[in-house]
Amino acid sequence: MKRVLFFILLMAALIFAGCAEKKEEVVAVVNGEEITGEQFRSYYNMLKNSYELEAGKIDEHKDKNLLKNIEDKAYDDLVLQVLIRQQAEKEGIKIDDRELEADLQAFKEHMGEKGYKDFLKRTGMTEKELLRQLKIEKMYKELKERVTSDVKVSDEEVKKYYEENEDLFKEPGGIRIYHILVDSEEEARSIIARLNKGEDFSRLAQKYSKCPSREKGGDLGIVNESTNFVTPFKEAALKLKPGEITQEPVKTEFGYHVIKAGEKVAGGIKKLEEVKEELRYQLEEEARNKVFSNYIENLQRNADIIDKRK
């Protein structure tokens, strides 16, 4: 009986040892570096979840072409991420873990504890995966900066583009609008009270607004009847006279707004000097994107990439 039991235990040990030695599934090899099936499935699920958040649930039977597209994008993205990291390391680009942690903490504070947890749940990401994506993003930006640092656009090129595309610089009349976006009516009322006591709108926007426009003191630019803003916001904004602030919070699907009207602006074509630096930045960014796109294509063309998907 003991010999039989010993034999069974020995066979079980050999079987489990064989399982332990079994190599993990590999979906691609990039310059000798493997992308595992686990990495692929995790990233694929994240993309799929993100798509469903925007467009609704995917029907596994009817949307097979869509699922194939998501699968191909997951594969292409992961291969590109490996190439970016490999090249960044060759260029001596290093991302400090403390910097990543600081970015993650800032993201958590912006989202709030509940919002952050909901974000991870909705996307199917773990915090480890999020940190990895943040690191790749930073490497991408650093590498792009190095590759495109010499790209410049001259005054002559800016002027030429302006003269050939004058219609793009037509500005309709309207009124400059600023806003502060917050989550609750109570917070909005508190801000209105502080503004009525003379506090600076721009400073309060920078401190409290949830809208990216907070970086510009809440400035949303020129608003008129054709501006593509949600109706309650646009109607409230266009009722204001220059210098006025809404005395009641304006509720929209985004939250509660405190709105301020700036100066009225007549329609016309902006002068070159008004748009020169912004236009230079736009043209340089387009040129950088083209240079870096060619750089990435060259990396992909010269890389040893083996697709091991079945």
UniProtKB/TrEMBL annotation:
One of its GO terms (molecular function) is peptidyl-prolyl cis-trans isomerase activity. The keyword Isomerase applies. Keywords: Isomerase, Rotamase, Signal. The keyword Signal applies. Pfam families: Rotamase_2, SurA_N_3. It comes from the Bacteria. InterPro entries: PPIase_dom_sf, PPIase_PpiC, PPIase_PpiC_CS, PrsA_foldase, Trigger_fact/SurA_dom_sf. Residues 172-263 form the PpiC domain. PROSITE patterns: PPIC_PPIASE_1, PPIC_PPIASE_2, PROKAR_LIPOPROTEIN. Residues 1-17 form the signal peptide. This is Peptidyl-prolyl cis-trans isomerase C. It comes from Thermosyntropha lipolytica DSM 11003.
